[in-house]
Design a protein that fits this description.
The protein is α+β, with helices and mostly antiparallel strands. The chain contains 4 helices and 3 strands.
């Protein structure tokens, strides 16, 4: 019995460690273009998918935000990020589609997404450092 409990504990610790290098990903659009996505996605796959989706250049403005070190649990409290929470839960009428991925393995290549928008859609980059 003790062995089973220790084995279960070891497995759960391994599960927690496996997702320690993940972060959430949110994307919102005023256009109906975003498909549903699994909750665990490798960053490379997600980056390619986003570039493909945005290649149609349906929007006038794109806002790409990165926040390293954040985990999905950081947004679980309704007071932690109330405006983001409203958008994720489709409470903002301007948002027609959204992608929310709980665990992205590694980092999404935002630079590749920006380059794709600049080259394919003629978007201009305005970089803001909010640190």
């Amino acid at each position: 019995m003790l062995f089973r409990r220790l084995a279960a504990l070891a497995l759960s610790a391994r599960y927690v460690h496996a997702f320690s290098d993940t972060s959430p990903f949110f994307m919102f659009s005023t256009s109906e273009l975003l498909p549903s996505t699994p909750q665990i996605v490798p960053a490379e796959v997600l980056t390619k998918s986003i570039i493909s989706l945005l290649s149609s250049c349906l929007s006038d403005t794109y806002i790409i935000v990165t926040q390293p070190g954040v985990h999905a649990e950081d947004y679980s409290d309704r007071y932690a990020a109330p405006h983001l929470r409203r958008k994720v839960q489709s409470e903002d009428e301007a948002i027609r589609s959204a992608v929310s991925v709980t665990d992205v393995l590694a980092s999404v290549d935002t630079g590749a997404i920006v380059r794709s928008l600049e080259e394919g859609c003629g978007a201009a980059l305005l970089k803001v450092d909010a640190s």
